[in-house]
Amino acid sequence: MRGHFGTRVLQVIPTLLLVSMLVFGLQQLMPGDPALILAGEERDPAVLAQIRDQLWLDRPVPIQYLHWMGGVLHGNLGYSWRIGQPVAQLVGEKLPVTLQLAVMAFIFAVCIGVPMGVLSAVKKNTVWDYLANGIGLAGLSIPTFWLGIMLILLVSVNLGWLPPSGYVGLFTDWRQSLATTVMPAFVLGNAIAAVLMRHTRSAMLTALEQDYVRTARAKGVREWRVVLRHALRNALVPVVTLGALELGTLLSGAVLTEQVFSIPGFGKLIVDAVFNRDYPVVQGVVLVTATVYVTLNLVADLLYVLINPKLRAA
Amino acid sequence: MRRLLLAAAACAAFAPWAARAQTAPLPTLTIGLGDDADILDPTLARTFVGRIVFAGLCDKLFDINARLEIVPQLATSWQWTDSRTLLIHLRQGVLFQDGTRMDAAAVKYSLDRHLTMPGSTRKAEISAIDHVEVVDPSTVRLVLKTPNAPLLAALADRAGMIVSPKAAEAEGKNFGQHPVCTGPFSFSERVAQDHITLTRFSGYWNAKSIHFSKVIYRPITDSSVRLANLDAGSLDIAERIAPTDVPAVRKNPKLRLALYAGLGYQGITFNTDNGPVAKNPLGENALVRKAFELSIDRTALVQVVYSGLFPAVAQGLPPASPFFAKSVQPPKRDVAAARALLKQAGVKTPVDVTLTVTNTPDQRQTGEVIQSMAQEAGFNVKINSVEFTTGLSASAHGDLQAYLVGWSGRADPDGNLYSFLHTGAPLNDGHYSSKEMDSLLDAGRTTTDLAARQAIYAKQAALEEKDLPIMYLYSPRTVDAMKKQITGFQEVPDAMIRLQGLALGK
């Protein structure tokens, strides 16, 4: 058992090392010289040379990589070339913002997608079914940035109900925090809601045709109980698996939503860093994201083993 | 005596109300910026939006006014004792936001810091300074290596910002995280990509002119979203609104527009001698470039893309500049003349041109209008749409033929011309080289007499129109939108949002 745990933990190291090499290498392929952006509009040659020297840009790529990794192994992700702040501090500031947004979007997606899928299946081939399918199709087809801007115009500019953009921390003022994130979370959760709706509908349709549902009905169980207690519980298993997978999609999907609503999260951080060729920020963000994914995978793997002893031998 | 006592008692009774009325809380001003500022250290800063934040944070030795004249700010007056010596008399009683006193020693410290700090982006702007001398606590002497007319304009921008020596020494390279200057607002907080908050500095030398308790700068990159925020009341001022949104702002009874002259230009830089890509008719032959120019109707282009908001120009200086050469105007579109010039140049038509543009909607549209107009005269224009950093890099390394690019502009004509046109200058990406042009630009830099400089820049504009290393298209104007209640907004061509005198009425 300990041996298995140890092997799995050790396997993480080469994975992260590979990720760090990939992100560093791919970055070098990006067109555009970061020193030119950093030297300001005047691009004084002396300043350019100084910047290249200071940031090790004039050294061979492997040396640059080792220099950066040396810092990372000592817990230093470096400093943003653009604003001078430590990358670790930026990551620490932005990650909770995106996580809050993703969790809220996921709640929206589940609250809209699952009931709509159930309704659509139960009222198959009725106006409710067509309406739910139409909404689902619209949710999948409408681009996030368009929906975002339209909602800002409607909800914030015309109705004045919610702030149009910005972010307030959950622990600073939870009401304001919810007010600033509810609209972007809805936009972000919208497409996922459509996916969940379609999967719930098809899983429910299958479940509703099963023998146990027929038996329940024959026993005189009320219809709502048949739907919610018998059919939905069984139909939810694949939906939950899909939902968990979509949570990852939410993190990457937040990039556009954060841009539209000016939310200072992870997505906006990395997009701005790429455009400004702020390499330490790009590297730091990708490395932290990869570490989070790999760690979660590792925890899941280890949990499987703990739950199912049969896997220990595998 | 009794009356006197009653009066005194009445005064004492009303005093708290009077005091409260005087200290009624000042409002907060929220400004929407087109981008996030970079590092808040005047020595290292690079971005345009950073300069807008500095307008609240750091006063300068000089400023410019709406007529582009140099006016004193931390200085009270100045004099050239000879062509290489500038004597600056400083305002007395000015405090830094950390409570220390601003004096000649602090000015020398800041200028020396600009000149010597590693990575300083100010060094090039004031490199004419040989050394700085403290004459007395309120007088400083700048001794130059060579006469330099643009120096005053440089000191009216970030190079003239004076930082607290005590804070700069204490913070070292982290000064940009906690900047301390002499401006009307002191630094409070920054959350990258979200906001920068400045708080009113009660010790400001011109505190009477400040009518806000706080200023919050919020970067909102999308212009439509910025405008929606202004409309919804989340912002008081939104800088740089898209020209296409101007009619909407004009129609909105809650908002007003500040549409005013800028300092920069937008044009096409031709690669005339930077690497093998320059070896083509457009790069090698001024006649072909002239034919290209004659095929373009600048006024129609501005009308189509920017609803006619910007003036068409054929020189690198804005019409607002006292050095603008009225004799050099954009030629009328003449397709027949363009075709004749191509014939005279002896080139095979159609002439292939790859025009690199930044991938923003307006720049792409500008490229498409040029493509369609030039085609009629015998040019086959291919548009290469790239992201800004990629285009900048390709331009610097000579990897493009023609580049649609702009310049934010400087108050002094030297700032718009020298670096782009002088042989070997850092921004001369097309590697244009002309001895006549070099001597005119050198003369413009070292001559301090206004009329003489005007004559020099008129000659320079005429020569440039002949050689055409850069084909200027238009001079962008600044379009800021704000709440109707905002008063005291100063429309200065550098597009900085000055907080002195700015107020929120009812």
Describe this structure as you would to a colleague.
The complex is a heterodimer of chains A (314) and B (506). By secondary structure, chain A is an all-alpha fold. Chain A folds into two domains: 2-73, no CATH class; 94-313, MetI-like fold (Orthogonal Bundle), CATH 1.10.3720. Chain A has twelve helices and no strands. The N and C termini of chain A lie close together (11 Å). Chain B starts with a helix and ends with a strand. Chain B has helices spanning 2-22, 48-57, 104-116, 151-154, 165-171, 223-231, 246-251, 281-284, 286-294, 298-306, 335-345, 361-377, 388-396, 413-421, 435-446, 450-467; strands at 28-33, 62-64, 70-72, 75-82, 85-90, 129-136, 139-144, 185-191, 195-200, 214-219, 237-238, 255-260, 265-270, 351-358, 379-386, 402-407, 470-474, 478-483, 486-487, 503-504. With 506 residues, chain B is an alpha+beta fold. The longest helix of chain B has 21 residues, at 2-22. The radius of gyration of chain B is 25 Å and the shape is globular. In chain B, helix 10 packs antiparallel against helix 12 and helix 15 packs antiparallel against helix 16. Chain B folds into three domains: 59-169, Dipeptide-binding Protein, domain 1; 183-262 and 478-504, 3-Layer(aba) Sandwich (D-Maltodextrin-Binding Protein, domain 2); 265-475, Roll (Dipeptide-binding Protein, domain 3), CATH 3.10.105. Chains A and B meet through helix 2, helix 3, helix 5, helix 7 and helix 11 of A and helix 6 and helix 13 of B.
Helical percent range of chain A?
over 70%
Sheet of most strands of chain B: 7 strands, mixed
What is the H level of CATH, i.e. the homologous superfamily of the largest domain in chain A?
Answer: MetI-like
Distance between the termini of chain B: 44 Å
CATH second-level architecture of the largest domain in chain A:
Orthogonal Bundle
Q: What's the CATH class label of the largest domain in chain B?
A: Alpha Beta
Domain count of chain A: the total is 2
Q: Which homologous superfamily in CATH is the superfamily of the largest domain in chain B?
A: Dipeptide-binding Protein, Domain 3
What Rg of chain A, in angstroms, do the CA atoms define?
25 Å
Termini separation of chain A: 11 Å
Q: What is the average of the pLDDT values of chain A?
A: 85
Oligomer: heterodimer
CATH fold assignment of the largest domain in chain B: Dipeptide-binding Protein, domain 3
- How many β-strands of chain A, per DSSP? 0
